[in-house]
Write a structure and sequence with these properties.
Shape: globular
Order of helices and strands: EEEHEEHEHHHEHEEE
Distance between the termini: 32 Å
CATH topology: Rossmann fold
CATH class: Alpha Beta
Radius of gyration: 17 Å
CATH architecture: 3-Layer(aba) Sandwich
CATH superfamily: P-loop containing nucleotide triphosphate hydrolases
Largest sheet: 6 strands, mixed
Mean pLDDT: 95
Number of helices: 6
Number of strands: 10
Strand order of the largest sheet: 6-7-8-3-9-10
Number of domains: 1
């Protein structure tokens, strides 16, 4: 498999008043094309910082990070903006939908700013929301809103989908419906999908599970037999 991301000894330090916080401490990592990866760790383990660096939302204090041939750690602001716009889809814990726009319009907004978008209707069909195209966020359940957010992310036709606690605000039944959407995207589109979570049960879906502890990778597990989303329980 070809390498999508490669990090070399990356560290990230924040200054909080007089205290220096070490969010990441020398992380070496490779993520691959078409892979479904879970980055697992408790609050404060550094997983969100790592995801933000991979997504071009932050840069490491030390070390290098590469997306294919682009070194993100030394990219210009213009390069990072293009990278985020054209190559990465983001899914966050909170849906960030525009309340005054329908589900279809929320997705269409993104298709208008990228080079080779998927049709908004196609993206919503992929997440099972063809029957909700003209509903506003307030008329949708939490799980449906998150599925609109996934449709919005994949409508860009990104190489990579980065998901930050996508089920964190949802109950188990709704969370599993969202994970089924992510499973479908990875399988049918071949989009490299990385989920960060503190929920160990989700790890069973992944090709690989990268465990973070105190800003470092403590272990990497390979799942010989992956579970489908609807086989999970927590």
């Amino acid at each position: 498999m070809s390498i999508i991301f490669k990090t070399q000894n990356i560290s990230r330090t924040y200054q909080m008043g007089e205290v220096e916080v070490h969010a990441l401490r020398g992380v070496d990592l490779e993520l691959f094309a078409n892979e479904f990866t879970v980055i697992l760790g408790m609050s404060g383990s550094g997983k969100s910082t790592l995801l933000n660096i991979l997504g071009g939302l932050d840069i490491p204090s030390k070390g290098k990070v590469f997306y294919k041939g682009l070194e993100l750690s030394h990219a210009t602001e213009e390069q990072l903006t293009d990278y985020r716009r054209y190559h990465v889809g983001f899914v966050f814990q909170f849906y960030n939908l525009i309340p005054s726009l329908t589900a279809l319009e929320n997705v269409t907004v993104v298709t208008e700013i990228v080079k080779q978008p998927m049709r908004a209707e196609q993206a919503l069909e992929l997440v099972g929301l063809t029957h909700r195209l003209n509903h506003f966020p307030a008329q949708l359940s939490g799980g449906e809103q998150q599925r609109v957010a996934i449709a919005r992310a994949i409508a860009k036709n990104p190489s990579v989908l980065l998901c930050d606690e996508p089920t964190g605000a949802l109950d188990i039944e709704t969370g599993i419906s969202v994970l089924k959407c992510l499973e479908t995207v990875n399988r049918e589109l071949g989009t490299s999908t990385t989920i960060i979570t503190h929920n160990a049960a989700i790890s069973a879906m992944a090709h690989r599970v990268i465990v973070l502890n105190d800003g470092q990778i403590s272990k990497i597990n390979h799942n010989k037999q992956r579970k489908a989303a609807d086989e999970l329980n927590w």
